[in-house]
Design goal:
Length: about 270
């Protein structure tokens, strides 16, 4: 008869094998029956495998940091519809291969929400990848120069959730816009793409340098999608105010500014 340790090793139940003694001791103290003990033993193995798989998926995702929806300060951004975010957190959009577009000025939490949804997807067992738009474009251009564009596009189609951050910060050439369209077209109705942008859809023609390509991209990106338009103050400015690095103008100062005909500073 094969020894228990050998059986666990051959079955690759490493997590159960590592905690078997403590599980047996717990079962004895709690007077568990065979079925209850088996349930706990298998739950221990599954939990270990799930955690290891999650850690691997998060590492492969290349997220800039780990943020969750629970950490998001919704009270600071009242323009966000909580119901829509809760629906997105249920990951129905991933199962249906739909997209999410997060619009708003810099610092309002677009990337936080995108990363939080990506973490949710990874926890559910989905393959996830995060890329800034600049890095994505560089990757596609280099692949084209090295005659491996089709293989690169196929690799970028595999992730069930692809987060593309910072759309609109840098303009694209016509060639770069064409490459981006090919990727969006590949993923269309096959996998979910989350995009963050500081530009409204009306300005996307400027981003891609071609209104025709911009229209084609928007057509595929928005056909099955949810759009969140975040209108609020930058979290970074809020933190600076708390630290006393930025002062909030008084009502009297604001009135004097308007009377002088001055315009508010725009963040580019």
């Amino acid at each position: 008869m094969i020894a228990l340790d050998q059986l666990l090793s051959r079955l690759k139940m490493d997590h159960l094998q590592a905690s078997l003694d403590s599980l047996c001791e717990h079962a004895s103290k709690q007077d568990l029956n065979y079925r209850e003990f088996l349930e706990q033993a298998l739950a221990q193995e599954w939990g270990g495998r799930h955690q290891k798989g999650l850690e691997s998926r998060l590492k492969q995702a290349r997220l800039p940091w780990i943020k969750t929806l629970e950490q998001f300060d919704f009270s600071f951004q009242p323009s966000i519809d909580h119901k829509i975010v809760r629906d997105l957190a249920g990951l129905g959009f991933v199962e249906r291969s739909e997209n999410v577009v997060l619009l708003g000025p810099p610092g309002v939490g677009k990337t936080h929400l995108a990363v939080a949804l990506a973490v949710k997807a990874a926890e559910a067992g989905h393959r996830v990848l995060f890329m800034t738009l600049d890095r994505l474009v560089s990757t596609l251009v280099r692949a084209r120069q090295e005659n491996r564009l089709d293989r690169q596009l196929q690799q970028l189609t595999y992730p069930k959730v692809l987060v593309l951050d910072e759309m609109g910060y840098l303009p694209m050439t016509r060639e770069e816009a064409s490459l981006f369209f090919r990727l969006i077209n590949r993923r269309y109705e096959r996998a979910s793409t989350i995009v963050t942008s500081n530009k409204s859809f009306m300005d996307w023609g400027e981003i891609f340098g071609d209104q025709v390509i911009a229209t084609a991209i928007l057509d595929r990106l928005l056909h099955h999608s949810t759009t969140l338009n975040i209108k609020g103050e930058s979290y970074r400015l809020k933190d600076k105010r708390r630290a006393g690095l930025v002062t909030t103008p008084t009502t009297k100062e604001e009135g004097a500014s308007h009377e002088a005909g001055s315009e508010p500073m725009k963040e580019h």
